[in-house]
Write a structure and sequence with these properties.
The chain has one domain: Roll (Nuclear Transport Factor 2, Chain: A), CATH 3.10.450. The chain is an alpha+beta fold. The protein is globular, with a radius of gyration of 14 Å. Helix 1 packs antiparallel against helix 2. Strands 1, 2, 3, 4, 5, 6 and 7 form a 7-stranded mixed β-sheet that branches.
Amino acid sequence: MIKLEEGWNDAFVKCDVAFLDRILADDYTDTCDDGTVATKAQDIANLKSGDLKFTSAVNDDYKVRVYGKAAVDTGRITMKAQYKGKDISGQYRWTDTWVKRAGQWQCVASHESKIVEKK
């Protein structure tokens, strides 16, 4: 899972939509930190169009749990990025759910929450 997650970050920075198309299931659902929900097609379209631009993306604090042909992994991403011109940089906690289909792991669901600095 960790290799796939790190490849996912690289794909964001390099705008490698082919990689994302391979690892995201067709029925993938992304629940964003603002509560919006996006599909695989929407996430890829945002990257392709330039609406979503990553300068850097690095994960740490991984926890991976495998349950046969399903897996759940969690971690923290530190990223520099913009969405439609708005700075969305910062640290986020994420949870990804993976399913092994035809011998390949594909992500079927993601959820992100922004880490808010305590005042």
